Amino acid sequence: MRTLISTAFVSLDGVVEGPGGEPGYRNSGWTFKDVEFLPEAYEIKGREQQEAGAMMMGRLSYEAFSPVWPGMAEFADYKVMPKYVVSTTLGDDDLVSDWGETTILRSLDDVAALKETEGGPIIVHGSASLVRDLADADLVDRYHLLVFPLLLGAGKRLFSATDKDAQKLRLVEHEAYANGIQKNVFDVVR
Asked: Containing H/E element for 113?
């Protein structure tokens, strides 16, 4: 069974919207505009590319990443990695041709079936709505969180507001950096 990992930049109050400067959000670019850059705080991002066997995202994240990431040296390992987009509306004609093998999954059942296959971990970048749905369906196995020392107020949240039983997490890796960013890696306890 493959491990499904949600990786996110998140504010202390749980907002994940617009970390890289995406348009349409009042605090867009909060990861680099408001917090000093320290390379060591982002070490986990390089490790994720080395360890992942596939990348998954929702339609909106795919539409944001696919025009940019294929040409970025920082994301070269993702270019050759199999990618999965979970969408009920995206069609094969909407996929870019320069980002390697990409498969469209139509449901959470398709994600559950993919997790049953052989291969390395599946890393989910961004994709707030998808991650909430995956977590509510108990499909997320691990969280890689870089928590920024910011309170952003309104914005898309990483975790859903669904009324459900408590889900226990086990802290398996953590570190705090001089710029206030905290790395927290949690395994979901089942």
From this structure: helix 108-115
